[in-house]
Amino acid sequence: MSDGRETVCVGGYSRTEGYVRLYPTKPWMDELSRWNVVSVPVERDESHDNRDESYKIAGSRREWDSLHEKVDKVGELDKSEQIELTHELAGDCRKRLNENQVSLGVVEPETLLDAYLRDLDDEDDSEDDTVQQTLQGGPKASVKGKNDYEKKLYLKYRCDDCDQKTPHDQSTIEWGVYRYWDKNDDFDGVIDALRLNDDSWKHYFFVGNLNNHRTSYVVISVLRFKKDEMTRNGIRVDDQSGLGQFD
Ligand SMILES: [Zn+2]
């Protein structure tokens, strides 16, 4: 942020409010780990972000140093609950989200056509470098932002029940990608690490648009479950909905 605070933006889902984007948060707030259920006081800040799903942690500037005390972890989803919720939310398509001006959603890719890396320099203008999403990790998380990395991972896919003529082709800011690159020199290895080539896994993409470019959506998180684990939870995994093999 302009005043020097390092922040990340967190996307989540509330049973009562629907999708929620929460900012600013600190990169090392463990309470906000994936699949945690949290309770947090929020306020709107229309002057900075008027998307329906966006909220600030109340008093975040004034109480920045004690910000973590405002986030109360009240639960955690086990694997079955993770699968259930993801399956329940899935079914969005960027085109419909965009038309309805909804800034967050979950898509179920029917076919993954490609997963590829692009140099950061080659990035086209549809992406926006002002988005605050960077990394979320433990206390030792680096404060590197996504623009400090040489590459960016792109996912080209058709979603289930897709309304768009051309396939989706979105960059991903999944934090696991950047954690992987922190530990490995092999940029391409991240594709296997996310099991994108492995047909025994099913993937869902949590997508969201950019505040300064509302029609551009990126993949915020790559969610994945073992197909046999989904079957055990009573969710039929159609073979044809599996991601295709590619180089
Ligand atoms: Zn679609």
Structure commentary:
The protein is an alpha+beta fold and 247 residues long. It has five helices and twelve strands. The strands form four sheets. It has a four-stranded mixed β-sheet, with no helix packed on it. A three-stranded antiparallel β-sheet has the order 7-11-12. A three-stranded antiparallel β-sheet has the order 8-9-10, with no helix packed on it. The longest helix is centred in the middle third of the chain and has 11 residues, at 79-89. The radius of gyration is 18 Å and the shape is globular. The model is unreliable at 125-142 (pLDDT under 50). The protein binds zinc ion.
Q: Helicity range of the residues? A: 10-25%
Number of domains: 2
Which ligands does the model contain, each kind named once? zinc ion
Structural class designation: alpha+beta
Main β-sheet description: 4 strands, mixed
Strand content: 25-35%
Q: What are the secondary-structure elements, in order, as H or E? A: EEEEEEHHEEEEHHEEH
Side-by-side strand order of the widest sheet = 1-2-5-4
Rg measurement, Å: 18 Å
How far apart the termini lie comes to 39 Å
By DSSP, the count of extended strands is 12
